[in-house]
């Protein structure tokens, strides 16, 4: 009997979840918040409360792992994302921001613009408030409207005092900056002791004539008086109050929960969702307001894993916060230099060896990271396939040059190059389109054109329960979750020890890209490869690299939906393919377009670079496809370049279980 009891208890101990593994350590910064947090912990037992003295101390605690999460305003989301913390927003409050739109309000009968503010008198809701200080001053410094070289030059407040002739900025030090309190009608505090404090006070300051411009939140402009006022727009124009959506300084992003980049954000979200909204978004019972969360949100929204502070805050707000700390942005370089983004050691070596004038090379971990770097102006360009052109376009990037594989089109012009996506099998394998399910698959990469988007569209269509993950038994799709079946067949770099490159979306993974997917099939690791139509011909009959020297083109065939029960020759791609899609293209930011095009045009016109630019040593398709004969300039918007038919095909794949790529979610929220 005792033995049975001991066995039962032992099983019970094993079955119980580990308390330490489940806990979410929430950082609170006051006794009132601690009291609320302890109450919430009674609703969700995995919640644990940790008291610190400030938001910055909480951020340090999260960085070191002593805490896991805290809700912060947009300014602290920016601070948390800096290198000394390295945190990211993981959950957003779905509510109206504290200051949805910060505006510059003026009387209708005046005639100056945002470019004429120097020497004017100004009214501000409060020092350090979003609508009265951080957003308007940050934006004006970021746009070089207020000159300030940074803290080494002088305090920002001094620069503002030298810019405006007089001001009312309640809450600023009257003793140190008397002219910033000169327009006030009280003690210049952000309290009832100052007549012009808050948004209402800033409006009254303007209305009474003590200031010529009021920096405040749009919502607080009295509706009954709006016809007498106008807004100053950043482009130098003026608009009516009703046109605020096209004429504001900045929008304040919503408050967000921040955590470490490697934190289990799903667990944090799950713990919070166990708590009723009536408890989560209510603070009155604990002696405060907006404790842990705002008192007004309707819900919490889990953010994509690709989300980071720059994507969450958007460029204008992010640059304004940077300007508040560092001063005016540096003038753009006049030398026309560009930074090319590479995604592997082999690409970096080729890029460096080209030594193209005014082109420098830098490394990122993946195409997705390159896209983020280009958005942040840390890099300028790279060549990607159509699926990635679409992702870049959704994130605001533009295609500027397209690969052309036909020499005659290079010489005479002509339509942009395109290629067929094909499904290749080994001859005699018995694999057809009809019996493809549960086979082993080889893909160029997750969310790549030929390797993922097109076959997903062809196989799954609009079936919401179908994904390539559950259609195939296992596969290699570099960039997929390492724990998933789509990384099972990947090889990595096959180092003896310390190989962390398995399933990475770069050439460090043996089966990455067109050549990698074909190699996966040729080595009989997989049973079908989704690749570009010319790959079989380019890699067989003695034309490929060392690993392919014995491959014969006649040993490979094509399968397709139109011929479900049979196979055709690999040269018959015109009638047996999954789709015809745009060629790879170079993507960049609109502001870098001119320099990127100029550098690449000069490089391919120079005989010193022509042979090297589209040739890869050791590996294939480094920087550009090896079949490229030239790059041709694109002037259409990304949607016209891709065509609506192709975009519809891509977006059809979003309806399956995988949904949108994570970066597209982050860019389009």
UniProtKB/TrEMBL annotation:
<dbReference type="GO" id="GO:0005886">
    <property type="term" value="C:plasma membrane"/>
</dbReference>
<keyword id="KW-0964">Secreted</keyword>
<feature type="disulfide bond">
    <location>
        <begin position="395"/>
        <end position="667"/>
    </location>
</feature>
<keyword id="KW-0410">Iron transport</keyword>
<dbReference type="GO" id="GO:0046872">
    <property type="term" value="F:metal ion binding"/>
</dbReference>
<feature type="disulfide bond">
    <location>
        <begin position="181"/>
        <end position="188"/>
    </location>
</feature>
<feature type="disulfide bond">
    <location>
        <begin position="27"/>
        <end position="58"/>
    </location>
</feature>
<feature type="binding site">
    <location>
        <position position="584"/>
    </location>
    <ligand>
        <name>Fe(3+) 1</name>
    </ligand>
</feature>
<feature type="disulfide bond">
    <location>
        <begin position="487"/>
        <end position="503"/>
    </location>
</feature>
<keyword id="KW-0479">Metal-binding</keyword>
<feature type="binding site">
    <location>
        <position position="451"/>
    </location>
    <ligand>
        <name>hydrogencarbonate</name>
    </ligand>
</feature>
<feature type="disulfide bond">
    <location>
        <begin position="476"/>
        <end position="490"/>
    </location>
</feature>
<dbReference type="GO" id="GO:0006826">
    <property type="term" value="P:iron ion transport"/>
</dbReference>
<keyword id="KW-0732">Signal</keyword>
<feature type="domain" description="Transferrin-like">
    <location>
        <begin position="24"/>
        <end position="326"/>
    </location>
</feature>
<feature type="disulfide bond">
    <location>
        <begin position="341"/>
        <end position="370"/>
    </location>
</feature>
<feature type="disulfide bond">
    <location>
        <begin position="123"/>
        <end position="205"/>
    </location>
</feature>
<feature type="binding site">
    <location>
        <position position="444"/>
    </location>
    <ligand>
        <name>hydrogencarbonate</name>
    </ligand>
</feature>
<dbReference type="Pfam" id="PF00405">
    <property type="entry name" value="Transferrin"/>
</dbReference>
<feature type="binding site">
    <location>
        <position position="132"/>
    </location>
    <ligand>
        <name>hydrogencarbonate</name>
    </ligand>
</feature>
<dbReference type="GO" id="GO:0019731">
    <property type="term" value="P:antibacterial humoral response"/>
</dbReference>
<dbReference type="GO" id="GO:0055037">
    <property type="term" value="C:recycling endosome"/>
</dbReference>
<feature type="binding site">
    <location>
        <position position="448"/>
    </location>
    <ligand>
        <name>hydrogencarbonate</name>
    </ligand>
</feature>
<feature type="binding site">
    <location>
        <position position="73"/>
    </location>
    <ligand>
        <name>Fe(3+) 1</name>
    </ligand>
</feature>
<feature type="binding site">
    <location>
        <position position="514"/>
    </location>
    <ligand>
        <name>Fe(3+) 2</name>
    </ligand>
</feature>
<feature type="binding site">
    <location>
        <position position="419"/>
    </location>
    <ligand>
        <name>Fe(3+) 1</name>
    </ligand>
</feature>
<feature type="disulfide bond">
    <location>
        <begin position="442"/>
        <end position="520"/>
    </location>
</feature>
<feature type="binding site">
    <location>
        <position position="450"/>
    </location>
    <ligand>
        <name>hydrogencarbonate</name>
    </ligand>
</feature>
<feature type="domain" description="Transferrin-like">
    <location>
        <begin position="338"/>
        <end position="655"/>
    </location>
</feature>
<keyword id="KW-0408">Iron</keyword>
<dbReference type="InterPro" id="IPR018195">
    <property type="entry name" value="Transferrin_Fe_BS"/>
</dbReference>
<dbReference type="InterPro" id="IPR016357">
    <property type="entry name" value="Transferrin"/>
</dbReference>
<dbReference type="GO" id="GO:0005769">
    <property type="term" value="C:early endosome"/>
</dbReference>
<feature type="disulfide bond">
    <location>
        <begin position="351"/>
        <end position="361"/>
    </location>
</feature>
<comment type="similarity">
    <text>Belongs to the transferrin family.</text>
</comment>
<keyword id="KW-0406">Ion transport</keyword>
<feature type="disulfide bond">
    <location>
        <begin position="37"/>
        <end position="49"/>
    </location>
</feature>
<feature type="disulfide bond">
    <location>
        <begin position="560"/>
        <end position="576"/>
    </location>
</feature>
<feature type="disulfide bond">
    <location>
        <begin position="233"/>
        <end position="247"/>
    </location>
</feature>
<keyword id="KW-0813">Transport</keyword>
<dbReference type="GO" id="GO:0005615">
    <property type="term" value="C:extracellular space"/>
</dbReference>
<feature type="binding site">
    <location>
        <position position="255"/>
    </location>
    <ligand>
        <name>Fe(3+) 1</name>
    </ligand>
</feature>
């Amino acid at each position: 009997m005792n033995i049975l009891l001991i066995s039962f208890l032992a099983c019970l101990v094993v079955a119980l979840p580990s308390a330490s593994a489940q806990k979410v350590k929430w950082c609170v910064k006051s006794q009132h918040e601690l009291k609320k947090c302890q109450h919430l912990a009674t609703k969700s037992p995995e919640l644990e409360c940790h008291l610190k003295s400030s938001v910055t101390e909480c951020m340090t605690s999260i960085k070191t792992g002593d805490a896991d999460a805290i809700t912060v305003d947009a300014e602290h989301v920016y601070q948390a994302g800096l290198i000394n913390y390295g945190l990211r927003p993981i959950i957003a409050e779905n509510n109206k921001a504290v200051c949805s739109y910060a505006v510059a309000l003026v009387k209708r009968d005046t005639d100056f613009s945002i470019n004429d503010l120097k020497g004017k008198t100004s009214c501000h809701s409060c020092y350090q408030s979003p609508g009265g200080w951080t957003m308007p001053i940050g934006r004006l410094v970021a746009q070089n409207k207020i000159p300030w070289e940074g803290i080494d030059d002088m305090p920002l407040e001094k620069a503002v005092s030298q810019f405006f002739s007089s001001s009312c900025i309640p809450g600023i030090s009257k003793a140190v900056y008397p002219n910033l309190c000169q327009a006030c009608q009280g003690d210049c505090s952000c309290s009832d002791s100052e007549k012009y404090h808050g948004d209402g006070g800033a409006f009254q300051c303007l209305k009474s004539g003590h200031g010529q411009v009021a920096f405040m939140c749009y919502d607080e402009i009295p509706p009954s008086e709006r016809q007498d006022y106008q807004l100053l727009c950043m482009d130098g124009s003026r608009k009516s109050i009703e046109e605020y959506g096209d004429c504001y300084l900045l929008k304040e992003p919503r408050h967000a929960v921040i955590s470490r980049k490697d934190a289990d954000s799903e667990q944090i979200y799950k713990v919070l969702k166990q708590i009723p909204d009536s408890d989560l978004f209510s603070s009155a019972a604990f002696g405060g307001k907006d404790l842990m969360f705002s008192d007004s949100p309707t819900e919490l929204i889990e953010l994509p894993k690709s989300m980071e502070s720059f994507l969450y805050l958007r460029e204008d707000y992010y640059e304004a916060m940077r300007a508040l700390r560092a001063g005016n942005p540096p003038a753009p370089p006049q030398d026309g230099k560009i930074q090319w983004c590479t995604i592997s050691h082999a690409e970096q070596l080729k890029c460096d060896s080209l030594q193209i004038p005014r082109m420098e090379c830098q490394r990122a971990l993946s195409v997705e990271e390159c896209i983020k770097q280009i958005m942040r102006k840390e890099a300028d360009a790279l060549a990607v396939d159509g699926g990635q052109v679409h992702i870049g376009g959704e994130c605001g990037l533009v295609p500027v040059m397209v690969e052309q594989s036909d020499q005659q089109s290079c010489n005479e012009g002509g339509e942009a190059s395109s290629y067929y996506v094909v499904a290749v099998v080994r001859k005699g394998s018995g694999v057809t389109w009809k019996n493809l399910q549960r086979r082993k698959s080889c893909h160029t990469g997750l969310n790549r054109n030929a390797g993922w988007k097109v076959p997903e569209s062809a196989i799954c269509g609009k079936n919401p329960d179908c994904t390539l993950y559950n259609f195939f038994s296992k596969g290699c799709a570099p960039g997929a979750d390492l724990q998933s079946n789509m990384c099972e067949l990947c090889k990595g770099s096959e180092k003896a020890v310390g190989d962390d490159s398995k399933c990475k979306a770069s050439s460090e993974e043996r089966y990455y890209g067109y050549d990698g997917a074909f190699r996966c099939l040729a080595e009989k690791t997989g049973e079908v490869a989704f690749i570009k139509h010319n790959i079989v011909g380019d890699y067989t009959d003695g034309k490929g690299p060392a690993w392919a020297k014995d491959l014969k083109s006649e040993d490979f065939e094509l399968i397709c939906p139109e011929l479900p029960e049979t196979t055709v020759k690999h040269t018959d791609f015109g009638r047996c393919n999954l789709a015809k899609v745009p060629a790879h293209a170079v993507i960049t930011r609109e502001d870098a377009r001119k320099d990127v095009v100029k550098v690449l045009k000069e490089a391919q016109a120079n005989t010193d670079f022509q042979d090297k630019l589209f040739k890869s040593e050791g590996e294939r398709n480094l920087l550009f496809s090896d079949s490229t004969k030239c790059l041709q300039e694109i002037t259409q918007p990304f949607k016209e370049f891709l065509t609506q038919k192709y975009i519809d095909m891509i977006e059809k794949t979003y309806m399956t279980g995988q949904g949108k790529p994570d970066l597209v979610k982050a860019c389009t929220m």
